[in-house]
Amino acid sequence: MLRIFRNAMLDKRITRKTFSFSAVAAKRYVIKDHYEFDQKVINSDNPVIVNFHAEWCDPCKILTPKMTELLEPSEEIDLAIVDVDDNAELVQTFEVKAVPAILAFRNGVVVDKFIGLVDANMIENLIGKLTKKKTA
Fold it and tell me: Given this model, what pLDDT does residue 25 score?
């Protein structure tokens, strides 16, 4: 894609105005602390799926890439990754007892959650719930 764009820019017959990029991809975050969590999850205008995971967790190593893949086409849902070993305060606040743990937020409130390795259908159902009409 970049090569096509670069080549087009080099061709003097095509100007920048020829290209427009209207789709804005959903945001992906690695949350460092509770301040960033508040800013990017609790205060987000978009629904956010929060993936509590750990580097040593084998099911997390499967679920995290699957979540990223399934959310890739979404422009409406953000994904926040929280390492449980680095964020004990968030783990305690949201009562995360096992990993992976997925919490879905809308308007700063947990609206759904699941624990453990789940199949793609469950993740797609969660995405479907979050993309339905947003509540004010």
Answer: 56
